[in-house]
Amino acid sequence: TSPTPITPQVHIFRLKVSNETYSHISNPVRIYLAYNIDTSDFITVTHDYPEGWNLASCPVDPVLSAIPSTVFAGSVPGTCYRFTGVYEQVGEITPGGGYWIRFPSNTTVTFFGLPVLEQTYQVAEGWNLIGGISEAFSMEDFNDPNGIIVAGTTYGYNLSYALSDVIQPGLSYW
Q: Each residue of 46-75: pLDDT tens digit?
């Protein structure tokens, strides 16, 4: 559901910044609210990640932040990578994207946001990293018009690689 327009509201505030030697109060800042977001469409998805490196995904469209250390609360900052032929550090999470991310200890992550019920993946010949969405789906349901995906070659990772034929929310797969 898209946000619905409401009667615009204006909120005015001042920001105070100070320390032992400096103090400053900003000029008035105006924030205009013109939409009401219906949170009844939001969902939570919880996943347990073991200590160490994990293949993970964000199974919702997050509402608070797309920064990896916020989406994957409890992860080690700066350890989120995607694969596009080479590993690239990620500054912003894409729902349903596949990522390597490291947790310093066993961690339960609760994802909160709008459901992601379908995803278009850009895949190329060779290895691709794809992530789960809000509901599990079978690789048999994966629409691959170019025949790039080789049946029986989808691998998940849970301290070691394992074949998988189902893509689960919160996880990524090769």
A: 999 999 999 999 999 988 788 998 899 999
